[in-house]
Amino acid sequence: MENRKEIEKLVRYVGSFLLICAIFILGFYIGRANPDASSYSSPEYILTGDIKNQYQEVSVNILWETWQRLEQEYLAATKIDPQNMVYGAVKGMVSSLDDPYTAFLTPEEVVEYFKSNAGEYEGIGATLMQDGAYVKIESAVDDTPAQKAGLKAGDLILFVNDEDVYNKSVYEVVSKIRGEAGSNVKLDIFRESEQKELEFNITRAKIDIDNIALDDLGNGFYKIKIYKFTENSVEEFNRIWDSIVTELVSKNPKGIIIDLRNNPGGYVSAVEHVLGEFLDKDKVALIEENKNGVRVEHKVDRVGRLLNVPLVVMVNGGSASASEIFAGAIQDYNRGEIIGQKTVGKGVEQKLLNLSDGSMLQVVFQRWLTPLGKNISKDDPIQPDVVLEEEDLTDTKALELLNN
Q1: I need a labelling partner for 327 at 20 to 30 A (CA). Which of 82, 155, 313, 316 fits?
Q2: Domain that holds residue 377
Q3: Residue 8 included in any domain
Q4: Which residues, including other chains, have CB under 8 Å from residue 222's CB and lie 6 or more apart?
Q5: Domain identity same for 236 and 351
Q6: DSSP per residue over 79-101, as a string?
Q7: pLDDT tier for residue 264 given thresholds of 50, 70 and 90
Q8: How many folded domains does the chain comprise?
């Protein structure tokens, strides 16, 4: 009996010893996994707003878990900018869509965005777009430093002034390229068509271009160059266009060239107004289709003044968006000849959504289709009726077609 009591007493001692050892070992490993836990103090900033643990059955706890672990473990945790952390998280969420035309803009980038759409600014005169982790040239606007230096649509920007811009947003890259007129900026790019890297040293200038310009080519032929389908407003663009057409009609033109080379697009309502000059009333100018597949036809609602004038439209690899709407409609109705090179292939429309802190979401919300129902895309852009690899020959070929 006494032996039994001694054995039970020994078992209790051993059990207590093992429990103490287990607690010690567990504490050791917890300390290894979180060495700063004892010294960790709350940050000086406070997170505010509603925190959702789940959204549509997807747990978002990993976001807050990552945030906390960065505060605890990151070497430079004292330098964390919480607002930049939030913006970085939002940018990551939007970039996961892998859509080059949908983006999040911080309040600072919103300012840059509206500068880009202004008729006057200081820079090199190129429009940019996202291409995965890189930013590339969408269009080098004619008669600007970018175009004169030799930048081309599709050029991937690798460095700006020797600064690596991999994984930077369009608006971050724009802010680095922009600068005071007369100053220089160096761009290192990769040109896929030539499979080589090129370096450009460009002198910035004041970019102040009349978006529509009329040029008398002689013998009754005229060229209308549309740099962008934008102005301070759609109404202002339309007024300028109407004034140009009034002047043109007074000259009784024998033929017209519409030059949309390196035109990055603009307002859909503006291109719709211009199409109304060349297509019969009630003709479909374009079709919009939303995410539910609902289509809305936009028809010409006026009688144009250039309905019977022979027409040639010039496009190239920098012609995008509204330019493609125009060329696609002219091509569908055989209203004129499309000449040049294939276009960018941007068959979607974006809208700007204002967010509560002055930031903005630029989001693709619908696609557009040509009157015959073709959706322009990167894989299926506008293909010219007459392909010309050398742009220097475009004017000559356009006049030849009009004469015939």
Answers
A1: 155
A2: 210-403
A3: no
A4: 214, 215, 216, 248, 251, 253, 255, 256, 257
A5: yes
A6: G--HHHHHHHHHHHHHHTT--TT
A7: confident
A8: 2
